[in-house]
């Protein structure tokens, strides 16, 4: 199993540009998540999904959109990139269990908006 | 302020020394997870604690959960350079609500040879 894969690993965007961060998992997990990590701030949840066709906002959803058409894929869309979106983005997935909910993380995408 | 506070924020220890990282929640915990992150990489799962008083060990790392105090500690015995990295705690604060986790801000550990 490849686990959780993310592409690209690095990207530089200009202000106002758009891009999609790709995330794929091959573990048949129902739950998927997008986080951003800023220095000294831990991880902040952007969006999450409990299954194909179902998504919901996390703590910091503004400026992002997601879709979940299949169990495997959970892309994150930035429509009008802003410098505040410079960050490292992590995708994660987990089984749909109750309290036992270990999340498996991808390697991250480092995004710079200038 | 953070719902999940880690202390210390950074730590430098001499190889062979013991150390403890704490994670304290301002709300009721529904599961506590410890992850390690090497610089420039993703998060690696270390341990999950679900019940008050639970203690788990893996190699030289031990984690404990004090549910009454809403606190967990991660203890490393006889630290090695391979232990260096960022340690993050994550907690389920919303029971079964999509399995969402809240994360602490991380503790950066450096181990001097």
Q: Can you walk through the features of this model?
A:
The complex is a heterodimer of chains A (114) and B (113). Chain A is mainly β and 114 residues long. Chain A is built from no helices and 11 strands. In chain A, the strands form 2 sheets. In chain A, strands 2, 4, 5, 6, 9, 10 and 11 form a 7-stranded mixed β-sheet that branches. A 4-stranded antiparallel β-sheet of chain A has the order 1-3-8-7, with no helix packed on it. Chain A is globular and about 40 Å long. The mean pLDDT of chain A is 92. With 113 residues, chain B is mostly beta strands. Chain B starts with a strand and ends with a strand. The interface between A and B is medium-sized, with 31 and 30 residues.
Tell me briefly what this model is.
The complex is a heterodimer of chains A (114) and B (113). Chain A contains no helices and eleven strands.
Order of helices and strands of chain A: EEEEEEEEEEE
N- and C-termini, Cα separation of chain B: 35 Å
Number of helices of chain B: 0
Give the SSE string of chain B: EEEEEEEEEEE
Multimer state: heterodimer
Using only CA atoms, what is the Rg of chain B? 13 Å
- Low-confidence spans of chain A: pLDDT under 50, at least 5 residues? none
Quickly give the structural class of chain B. Answer: mainly beta
Radius of gyration from the alpha-carbon trace of chain A, in angstroms: 13 Å
Taken from the alpha-carbon principal axes, the silhouette of chain B is: globular
Which regions of chain B contain 5 or more consecutive residues with pLDDT less than 50?
none
Termini separation of chain A (Å)? 36 Å
- Largest sheet data of chain A: 7 strands, mixed
Shape summary of chain A: globular
Can you give the mean pLDDT of chain A? Answer: 92
Helix content of chain A: under 10%
Query: What's the overall average pLDDT of chain B, rounded?
Result: 89
């Amino acid at each position: 199993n490849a686990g959780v894969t993310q592409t690209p690993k690095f990207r530089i965007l200009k202000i106002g540009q758009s891009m999609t961060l790709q995330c794929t998992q091959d573990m048949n997990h129902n739950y998927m998540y997008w986080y951003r990590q800023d220095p000294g701030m831990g991880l902040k949840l952007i969006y999450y999904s409990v299954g194909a066709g179902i998504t919901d906002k996390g703590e910091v959803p503004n400026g992002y959109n997601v879709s979940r058409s299949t169990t495997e894929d959970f892309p994150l869309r930035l429509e009008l990139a802003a410098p505040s979106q410079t960050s490292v983005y992590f995708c994660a997935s987990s089984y749909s269990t109750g309290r036992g909910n270990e999340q498996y993380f991808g390697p991250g995408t480092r995004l710079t908006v200038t | 302020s953070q719902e999940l506070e880690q202390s210390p924020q950074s730590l430098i220890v001499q190889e062979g020394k013991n150390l403890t990282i704490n994670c304290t929640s301002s709300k009721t915990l529904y599961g506590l997870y410890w992850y390690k992150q090497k610089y420039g990489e993703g998060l690696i799962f270390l341990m999950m604690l679900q019940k008050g008083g639970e203690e788990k060990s893996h190699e030289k790392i031990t984690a404990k959960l004090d549910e009454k105090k809403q606190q967990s500690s991660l203890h490393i015995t006889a630290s090695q350079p391979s232990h260096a990295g960022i340690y993050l705690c994550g907690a389920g604060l919303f029971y079964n609500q999509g399995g969402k986790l809240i994360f602490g801000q991380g503790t950066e550990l450096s181990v001097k040879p």
